[in-house]
Amino acid sequence: MQANDDLQSRWWKLEEKLIERFGKKPDMETILFLIGIQEFGDIKAKFTKEQKQDLMHIATCSLLAQSGYYELEGVDEEGWPHFRQLKSLPVMNLHEQENFLKDHILLYFDQQEF
To answer: How far apart are CA 14 and CA 54, in angstroms?
Structure first.
C-alpha cells in the first residue's frame, strides 16, 4: 500500500508542474502525446489523428525502453523512430497497467529538465 501512496503523491506533484506549465491538468493521453513530441523532436503546428496515435506509441515505447521492454531500432527517412520489443510486458489488470505507465512517466520526467 505504501508504494501506491508514494506513486500517487509523486503523480500529483507531476500534475501540479504540468498545470503550472500548460495552464490545465493533462490526462494520460495528453502526457503521452507531449512525451511523443519530445522524443520525435519535430514540433508541427498540426498533426493528423494517425500521427497523434504514432506519437503516443513513440512515447509508450520510449517510456518502456527505460525498463528494457523496447529498444530504438532506427529512424525512418521522415525522422520517425521505430522500436523493437525485447521482452513481453507483464500481465496486469487495467489499474496495474495505469500504475506501471505512471511509474515510467515519472521516471522519464525525473530524467528531463523540467
So the answer is: 24
